[in-house]
Amino acid sequence: MTGRIRACRFGVIMLKLFWWTSLLATIGFIVSAVLWLPHDWPVWLGVLLAVIGIEFAIFWIGIVIVYLTSVQLGLKIRVIGILCGWIPIANLVALRLIIRTVDNEVRFESAKEVLNRSRAPRRICATRYPILLVHGVFFRDTAVLDYWGRIPGELQRNGATVYYGEHQSAASVPDAARELTERIRRIVETTGCGKVNIIAHSKGGLDMRYAIARCGAAPMVASLTTINTPHRGCGFADYLLTKIPTSVQNRVAATYNAAAARLGDAHPDFMAAVHDLTQSGCARLNARIGDWREMDKTTAPGVTPIEPDPADPFSGIVCQSFGSKLRRATTGKFPLNFTYPLVKWFDGPNDGLVSRPSFPWGERFIWLEPNGTRGISHADMIDLNRENIPGFDVREFYVQIVAELKRRGL
């Protein structure tokens, strides 16, 4: 068990102790007040003050520890705890929410630690070729600015060697593809690994398809797994670009490009990236790429055999795709809670940004739709919020993807 989880467990034990001892003390003081007051009031008052002091210490030790160490509390529950802490009854409800949330976190992380220790000797993610994680638009994915949340660490704990795309946050697909091709070439030449297994999220999947088909990356790629990639674009993006005045688009683009340049992007291009994510933009890209691994939009999960084609730049590369469904807007974090209804109106079931018909590509497509009312958003698929989602362990999801690549000799 990690130090953080041990601290979380201690903190939640202290809060549980506070909860039950406060309840028993309250009952005890009510009963003792009938027996001792008014003739023994000094003793009663002294005991009351001593108990209040002890309970005060227990509570604050517990609450400070869980606030400092818990990941799953998040900002929302922390704010609820602070706001409700001074309101009778509401503070008890908030405390129960905090205890339940942290207790579940401790149980989940402890079980995950046990699982990883039990399979550590097998190094199930130690693939023949290293893993290259390729980010989507408007983010970076370096080891410092971690786009992928807890996923890289989980892969490495299970034997994987992980690299990052480290390309610009916003650029056209062709520009990003050229940048990624050079990144792959540097990795291959520096390490002598020969090839890489690529896992690409969102626009990163389009960038990598273009890199393989048009930029010469194909000989250096063993597999390409796309995660929630809009292979056929986002219909609502086409709509927005026709409704938002050009002057507003230009102001937004200029503001973003200036900020991205200060953060390290050499040639940020907000509008080029956005246009390449529209349905019309993806249609143009697919025409240039040659949609060698196009799947029928109704393809069920499973493997579709594809005969090797000498003219196919993807020949010999394992290609697969995944997509997920967000069930309702309220379970998507900002801004997906706003975009989900728009995408649903224009494109149907979606992850908050990309619809189901746009996801399938490659030899295999898997649609993720867990039980319950929450679903899995575009951001959940990269652990952006570090949230333990009931019914979907995002870290284990990636571990199993990479473990399967290892089983296939990649």
Summarize the structure.
Keywords: Membrane, Transmembrane, Transmembrane helix. By secondary structure, this protein is an alpha/beta fold. The chain is built from 13 helices and six strands.
The CATH architecture category of the largest domain equals: 3-Layer(aba) Sandwich
What radius of gyration results from the CA coordinates? 26 Å
Query: Under CATH, the topology of the largest domain is which?
Result: Rossmann fold
Number of spatially distinct domains? 2
**pLDDT below 50 for ≥5 consecutive residues: which ranges?**
296-308
Overall mean pLDDT stands at 89
Provide the CATH superfamily of the largest domain: Alpha/Beta hydrolase fold, catalytic domain
Q: Determine the N-to-C terminus distance.
A: 31 Å
Description:
The structure is a single chain. The protein is of the alpha/beta class and 410 residues long. It has two domains: 3-118, no CATH class; 126-407, Rossmann fold, CATH 3.40.50. 51% of the residues lie in helices and 8% in strands. The chain has helices at residues 3-36, 41-69, 74-84, 90-119, 151-157, 173-191, 203-214, 235-243, 246-262, 270-275, 279-289, 336-347, 394-407, and strands spanning 131-134, 162-164, 196-201, 221-227, 318-324, 364-368. It has a six-stranded parallel sheet, sandwiched between helices. Helix 1 (3-36) packs antiparallel against helix 4 (90-119), helix 3 (74-84) packs antiparallel against helix 4 (90-119) and helix 6 packs across helix 7. Mean pLDDT is 89; it is low at 296-308. This is Triacylglycerol lipase. It comes from Bifidobacterium aerophilum. InterPro entries: AB_hydrolase_fold.
